[in-house]
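Ticket #4471: structure export looks truncated?
Reporter: QA, pipeline team
Priority: medium

Steps to reproduce: submit the single chain below to the structure queue and open the exported record.
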Amino acid sequence: MKLYGEQDIQEVPLRSPFFRNQVQRFLGANGLRMEPLDSYYAFRNADGDIIAGAGLSGDIIKAVAVAPEARSEGLVAPLVSRIISEHGAGPLKVFTKPENQAIFESLGFRLLAAAPLAILMERGRGLEQYCTYLRSFAGAGRCGVVVMNANPFTRGHLYLLEQAAARVDRLFVIPVAEDRSDFPYAERLEMIRAAAPSVVSRSQHPVVVLEGSAYAISAATFPTYFLKDLSEASETQMRLDLDLFGRWIAPALNATVRFVGSEPSDPLTNRYNRLMLEVLPLDVVEIPRLNAVSASAVRASLAQGRFSAASALCPASSRPYLVAALADRALRMELDTPCKPGLVGPDGNGAHTDMDYGTMLAGIRALRPFWPRMALAASPEALQQLGRDAEEAMLASTGGVNTHRGAIFCLGLFLNVFARFCYVVKNEDVMQSSLVDLTGSILRNQLKNSNLDKTLVGARALAASGYEPLFRDWLPYYRHCLEENGRAAEVFSEASALFSASENTSAAWQDAFARQKTLLRIMSMLDDTCVLHRAGPVRAQQVKEEARRLLEQMPGRAGHDGKAGHDDSAGHDGSAEHDGSSIGPLEEMCRRYAAEGISPGGAADMLALTIFVNSILN
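Actual output as written to the record:
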């Protein structure tokens, strides 16, 4: 029998489908399933088969298994020692079977939570430090706890907190810290904290919004929560999560009651609520859900670009985060539009050698935290500083590549104006005049001149006008394109591979087609400084004319004047008929502009802005 040592441990290259499948088969043979892993370490026998292995995901050791024929050889300890040495400082957790508890205790782990089929252990002082933090807020009297994801924070969440706070002397709210939701943890925490004062004013009892942690509904305690997967694994994870809460978190807060909202539709959350009643060593109070209000309904409305419907389900304090999500959505929709002349998209880099789809996406992600702050900025000076901070974060995330400087400027203006003046009364005239005033303040500050320079050009001139072409032309045109006969979008049937399986529908083609036509519309009108700088004034004027001519060839009922009218290719029933060949000139323009180095970046910014304004006024 071979004696195995640490020198025999191999890291399995999980990026290789062959080796990943090998790990999956090994785990399946030992009663485990494959989960997302950053790394996996294994012992192999003489035939190359895995006989013992352990993986790491973040700070969690997972997928620890030993083949039956090797279980007497003590292979778990050297595997875990290898992971500890690779992980370095900081707490390290492990999911494992109860029979492995002694092995992990010998390696410095201690038990955090137990369930019949699994235990959760930790090496380090992570939970101890979190409980010390919690004890600093513990109060006397009857204390209650609500753990919520708030993705986003709705009127239903507000109702739950109001009902809970009225029944205790002090209420603690713990947001889910795991960043696997549409709204990042930082935004969800801010939304809850913004709503807390109104809860206090109604209940007259203290409400303390705590920091979340990896010790309540997280990838460590309850990973299948984020997959909504009701299975034997999720049952075990729910029990571990609740056992940890009952053993450590509730006592640290001196809490004797946990509140939860009822769940009529989601089986996993409903089962979690039932288990809470069964296993927690404290009172559990289930508050009936507020009718017709759910975070999933808010997210669905935002995905459709319908601010009004989403806002109606949320308290006013959540609105800055809803419009932030719509700003993020607009940038992603612009990026995901295929066949954009000279621009980065899902089908190529256009005229750019310094950026690609991944670079653009990194820029969008870096900007997300700044959108709600811009909406909440209290002065033009504060908004300007946020713009500078956002640009710095963008450049840091892209390796110094300017992906969205123009978008930072225009979206920041609209976010702030909409948040201050137009949440309830969505009036385009009020919005435009407010934009003129805000832009004037910013430009006077930038130019150090109380009298604005009459020779403003490009983005500054457009902003100084209150984005008059957007309200007068681009927004109505985009809306008209969205309403056009769906058959016009069939021109994209030849390019359906550009879309993911979920987007590969006529509706998705039509929406992309509307964005393409609107981009050409903007290109035909905008004095795009990006084109001017790259190609000069003569070629820039030609680009405008080429966009206008190509737009006239596009099928559909919206002509270049933006009005519904006759189309030579339309049948007597008004529907567009064509052979799909009209996509050819657009692809040809894309190839030409890529070769010439022409990139209408200003038009791309205005397309994203048009999408955004349509969504907030919808």
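Status: closed, not a bug. The export was complete when the record was re-opened. Leaving a note from the reviewer for reference: Residues 529-553 form the longest helix (25 residues).
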